[in-house]
Design brief:
- This is GntR domain protein.
- Pfam families: FCD (PF07729), GntR (PF00392).
- Keywords: DNA-binding, Transcription, Transcription regulation.
- InterPro entries: GntR_C, TF_FadR/GntR_C, Tscrpt_reg_HTH_GntR, WH-like_DNA-bd_sf, WH_DNA-bd_sf.
- It is a single chain.
- The chain is mainly α.
- It folds into two domains: 64 residues, Orthogonal Bundle (Arc Repressor Mutant, subunit A); 139 residues, GntR ligand-binding domain-like (Four Helix Bundle (Hemerythrin (Met), subunit A), Up-down Bundle).
- The protein has ten helices and six strands; from the N terminus they run βαααββββαααααααβ.
- The strands form three sheets. The protein has a two-stranded parallel ribbon with strand order 1-6. A two-stranded antiparallel ribbon has the order 2-3. Strands 4-5 form a two-stranded antiparallel ribbon.
- A hairpin with a 2-residue loop joins strand 4 and strand 5.
- Helix 5 runs antiparallel to helix 6, helix 6 packs antiparallel against helix 7 and helix 9 runs antiparallel to helix 10.
- The longest helix has 23 residues.
- The radius of gyration is 19 Å and the shape is elongated.
- It starts with 16 loop residues before the first strand and ends in a 6-residue tail after the last strand.
Length: 251
């Protein structure tokens, strides 16, 4: 079974979304757990064995295994391997020290008003920094580098609000935001959509429109929540149309 080869799905005018090999591996393992092929308490095959069976590289497999843990399906035990701990994903995955629901609640109460303040208080230097950062993000093809800049983007918006407490809050959840961002981009194809949403935020800040900035950030966070929900509670297998590629690009 080679999950790094390209495959197409769908029919009629439903065009498939290009996904990464990691997502293909994750989907395969997740469905095996949900079917009961690996029951709660079972140990998954070794990394070497899974790489051989699925014909993917070890880094790809390890990303998929980390995603399974984030979803609450498995747990890694040092020196012993990866074990199944649930037959279905948790509805509230954890990113670092924080649950997704807690992150979203804080972001709604902090980042939305922060965007409004930033529109009123931003400097020319803030706009130059944000525009330059966004240009780099739109050109970036490496997920890890993009995720790092995504976090910097939200820190820069907080900085533009001219209240150090706001930036400190974002700093506190920075690691969790990065983990969540990587998760959503690998499994939800969020990168291009995020770039468009970030562009709308920057344009609102440049216009000095508090209303538009608040609306743009609200939309951004709503899309984050919607994508996360779709990953944790996906459509049925018949609805999925994918094209796995080890390169990890989204189409």
């Amino acid at each position: 079974m080679n999950l790094s080869d390209s495959q197409t799905g769908g029919s009629g005018f439903d065009f498939p979304r290009r996904i990464s090999a990691m997502e293909a591996v994750l989907t395969h393992l997740r469905e095996a757990i949900e079917r009961g092929d690996y029951a709660v308490g079972d140990k998954l095959p070794s990394e070497a064995e899974l790489c051989r069976r699925l014909e993917v590289s070890r880094p790809v497999l390890r990303e998929a295994l980390r995603a399974l843990q984030t979803m609450g399906l498995t747990a890694s035990r040092t020196g012993k391997g990866t074990f199944v701990i649930s037959s279905g994903p948790v509805e509230d995955p954890t990113f670092g020290d924080y649950a997704a629901s807690d992150l979203l609640e804080v972001r709604r109460h902090v980042e939305i008003p922060v965007a409004g303040y930033a529109a009123l208080r931003r400097s020319a230097e803030d706009l130059d920094h944000l525009s330059h950062l966004l240009d780099r993000m739109e050109r970036e093809t490496d997920t890890t580098a993009w995720v790092a800049m995504d976090t910097l983007f939200h820190l820069a918006v907080a900085q533009a609000a001219r209240n150090p407490v706001f930036r400190r809050v974002i700093e506190e959840i920075r690691d969790a935001l990065a983990r969540q961002s990587a998760f959503l981009n690998e499994l939800g194809g969020r990168r291009e959509q995020s770039n468009r949403e970030h562009r709308a935020i920057v344009e609102a800040l440049a216009d000095g429109s508090e209303h538009d900035a608040v609306e743009a950030m609200t939309h951004h966070l709503e899309r984050v929540e919607t994508t996360l929900t779709s990953i944790v509670r996906p459509a049925t297998a018949d609805d999925r149309t994918t094209v796995p590629t080890e390169g990890g690009q989204q189409a």
